[in-house]
Amino acid sequence: MKGDTPLNSTMSIGQARKLVEQLKIEASMCRIKVSKAAADLMAYCDAHACEDPLITPVPTSENPFREKKFFCALL
């Protein structure tokens, strides 16, 4: 068609500008290798494992979410 822009005909100029800005932001990001990111994540998890209540359970005396045992007082 004669009136089509070089971009996709359904994409407006404003959308194209937003896309270009987003691509510029992504291109300027500092990137690291996946192996280094995984090693850093594992080191962080190892260093903070003692603080994780899912790995080291909270003592029942300090657990505010423990099940309270109610006994029937009426018989």
From TrEMBL:
Belongs to the G protein gamma family. One of its GO terms (molecular function) is G-protein beta-subunit binding. GO terms for biological process: G protein-coupled receptor signaling pathway. This is Guanine nucleotide-binding protein subunit gamma. The keyword Membrane applies. Guanine nucleotide-binding proteins (G proteins) are involved as a modulator or transducer in various transmembrane signaling systems. The beta and gamma chains are required for the GTPase activity, for replacement of GDP by GTP, and for G protein-effector interaction. Keywords: Cell membrane, Lipoprotein, Membrane, Methylation, Prenylation, Transducer. G proteins are composed of 3 units; alpha, beta and gamma. It is found in: Cell membrane. Pfam families: G-gamma.
